[in-house]
Amino acid sequence: MWLLVAFCVLAALCAASVALGVRVVSPGEVAAALAGHTDTIGEAAVIARLPRTALAVLVGAALALAGASMQAVTRNPLADPGILGVSGGAAFAVVVCIALLGVSSPGVLMGAAVIGSAVAAVFVYAVGSLGSGGATPLKLTLAGAATSAAFASLVQAVLLPRADAMESFRFWQIGGVGGATWDRIGLVLPALALGAAICLLSARGMNALALGDDLAAGLGAHVTRTRLVTAAGAVILCGAATAVAGPIGFVGLIVPHLCRLLVGTDHRWLLPFSAVAGAGLLVASDVIGRLVARPSELDVGIVTALVGAPFFIWIVRRQKVREL
Fold first, then answer.
1. Stretch 95-99: mean pLDDT, rounded?
2. Which is it for the CA torsion 59, 250, 262, 196, positive or negative?
3. What topology is assigned to 57-319 in CATH?
4. Quick one: how far is CA 296 from the chain centroid?
5. Amino acid 323: pLDDT
6. What percent of the chain shows pLDDT beyond 90?
7. Is the distance from CB of 172 to CB of 242 less than 8 angstroms?
8. Where are the coiled-coil regions (predicted)?
9. pLDDT band at 319, cuts 50/70/90?
10. How confident is the model at residue 277, as a pLDDT?
11. Domain-wise residue ranges, the chain
12. Which residues contact 246 (CB under 8 A, 6 or more apart)?
């Protein structure tokens, strides 16, 4: 029932995303644009909002799926692609390829973002595993925060001497879906579909991991393989989403926690529900960003940060960074 409600809310938000924006359009212009007409500026504006809405749906679903999967793999309630430095690694890899190597191929940039995400994830987990107690939630969060800050500084160090690259990356670094095109969506869609399939097919293994490694192994689950496969799916989702929309934070943190309150902890339901809810959150954030700053607009990365930062503090106080 909740999944059906989530789909209905997502459909309503997509309709609002097409109809609402910086330019006011009438319902007649919306209907005419959807019928294929582009005679007026309003109709052209509606047509331009379609790929933007589709990209917001895909990126929101990908980040929410990645966040839920990371929380399952690390058993860390604070796990999120942004907080654990995975998005920062993807952003740094993209910046290095464009600013230093002169790479402009979207496919190569997406591959670089996935590799950067993987390197950042391995590094954070390795640092968080040092010392007694292994990879505790607190150590992973601290290692991720430090890694995110380091990548942000490295990105600035690469961009500051290059004014032309700095201008083009200034808005990408915030995170947004304003430059969406159908070509970009077609390029990133296979990677997002692959990452989503890996995570969804690993749902039973995530349920076993929630019981603890020893009990999961006793029940016949391949703990190491499940962790590696699930982490790979999350890294692919995060890297591809970051390459196409920039580093957008807090979606992977907020959505899985809210979804657990509605559908419980069974990942066979939690993962698809998180994907739909994450898509809705990013579409809603994009619509809010367009409306509150007329005639300009706020990128979705700013809106999700304003919503996610207080939620992050609430999770820390409520969970006291215990394991899931």
1. 85
2. positive
3. ABC transporter involved in vitamin B12 uptake, BtuC (1.10.3470)
4. 24
5. 46
6. 26
7. no
8. none
9. low
10. 94
11. 57-319
12. 91, 171, 172, 173, 174, 175, 176, 299, 301
